[in-house]
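Curious: can you check?
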Amino acid sequence: MTYSIVARDPATGQMGMAVQSHFFGVGRLVGWGEGGVGVVATQSFVEPAYGPRALALMRDGAGAQDALRALVAADDEQDRRQVGVLDATGRAAAHTGARCIAAAGHTVGDGLSAQANMMRRDTVWDAMRAALERGRGDLAARLLDALDAAEAEGGDIRGRQSAALLIVSGERHGEPWRDREFDLRIEDHPDPLAELRRVVDLHRAYGRLERAEHAMTAGDQTEAAAGFAEAADALGSNVEGTFWAGVALASTGDIEGARSMLASALAAHDGWPELLRRLPAVDLLPDEPGLVERLLAGSER
């Protein structure tokens, strides 16, 4: 008993699914996706098998409509199911069974399908579609806007509990972990949509952190320091980015800048100073006599 949306970004080819429900852990049942293949939202007396089966059919060449038609035809409980399917070309299809609990319905557009059941009002699915079509930003931002629009129309008649966002790449890379660009779930929360937005922002910050880490291991400490500092600003009170920005600055020879950057991290928890001591042994900090002590001076509890 859920509202969800599946959509494709024509500029990037990314495909995504976003969902919210008054149900524990909605993302583990409703949302399915595979890079270069498609995304699926299966709900309303949910049959999770629709997800992997629809993806398998599309992987073998079926379009969204044909895949959905085949699955619905083979389902004795089709009247209770609600499903949205999107393939890698942007074709979308949806099914709302006659015995889905009102208000229930869907709308299919160019590169999207929005579907909902057990809603407070029958305006929810159209509101999701309109929000996504007029939205700005990347696909993640527009999918979140669509969920907010659904909630503004009354959302699930029972209230709120969990939400999820899944985005996969438009092409298959042969490495599934590269194809899954967002896979975030809020399992149980009084305000799951706000919490999902917070976690999306955190995910973006850790993406900056990861890029800076790659620069560090490639030997570009100046680029790494800038990237870690950018991540630190986005992470706020989380000192992960601050610590590694200081390490990267130390590796460029900017000891005073490193000490300034490291100060808050080293004071936050006694594990950070010990971690700093371990870095020269694995070539993540110059193995220079007295360097670690200079960085730690005055910062330990």
About this structure: The first strand starts at residue 2 and ends at 8. The beta strands are 2-8, 15-21, 31-34, 38-43, 82-87, 92-96, 105-109, 112-116, 162-168, 180-186. The mean pLDDT is 95. The domain at 205-296 is CATH 1.25.40 (Serine Threonine Protein Phosphatase 5, Tetratricopeptide repeat).
